[in-house]
Amino acid sequence: xxxxAVQPPILDHFVIxxxxxxxxxxxxxxxxxxxxxxxGNHAGGFTTNKLILxxxxxxxxxxxxxxxxxxxxxxxxxxxxxxxxxIIDWAFxxxxxxxxxxxxxxxxxxxxxxxxxxxxxxxxxxxDGTILKxxxxxxxxxxxxxxxxxxxxxxxxxxxxxxxxVPYQVEPHLTQxxxxxxxxxxxxxxxxxxxxKLKPVYDAIFGGAWNYEVPSGSTTGKHAVSLSSGEGAIKLxxxxxxxxxxxxxxxxxxxxxxx
Length: 259
Prior knowledge:
The chain is α+β, with helices and mostly antiparallel strands. The chain has one domain: 2,3-Dihydroxybiphenyl 1,2-Dioxygenase, domain 1 (Roll), CATH 3.10.180. The protein has six helices and 15 strands. The protein has an eight-stranded mixed beta barrel with strand order 1-4-3-2-7-8-10-5. A five-stranded mixed beta sheet has the order 12-11-13-15-14, with no helix packed on it. A hairpin with a 2-residue loop joins strand 14 and strand 15. It is globular, with a radius of gyration of 18 Å. The mean pLDDT is about 95. This is Glyoxalase-like domain-containing protein. Pfam families: Glyoxalase_3. InterPro entries: Glyas_Bleomycin-R_OHBP_Dase (IPR029068), Glyoxalase-like_dom (IPR025870). It comes from Penicillium cinerascens.
């Protein structure tokens, strides 16, 4: 890294795959614990979403494929074969898309075999007609194939103001959840096989200790990432005004630590 300061990754969001039916009924399931923010339809017309915005500026995204999507299109989608009702992926962001080249260079220098794609345009139209634009960068393995979703974070880099995509400051009432959840304290990633093989990749992503920042700049919480061998799952511990546990979906629980 030649002694240069490394821009820490900024936690952006977590992706939770659900059926379209469950997405439409989500407020009935978690409405007593969380305030849902309207998402919208993604470019391409295959998926739609709803969000839980958190006061630290990160968010949970519930995403669903429309029922009439061509099965082949879904099968070839990055998330099309993942298990519904689980956290399937997660993303970092940076202040500017131009900052991402340094992440790519660190991975190249580390010679891990893993690389990130150059930014791929994406977007979504909000219910009020607002068009959002961003670019995503997906991790590829040594063979040039997309790495399994969730094993390595992807990146979401805004091309329209992030405040339009994540209006946690513009509409703070959307972050005042009855559950008391305020943000994400820590993230643990379980991967099948030997987690040690991915350690150099994570070292390169972070450029040092495995700590992230949050969009709000809050320093409350551990803001740490851990990696282990296991069944293949992403688990997060949230920070809140009270400790406990809340159910996001049947069988999917969110731990809360009070700070």
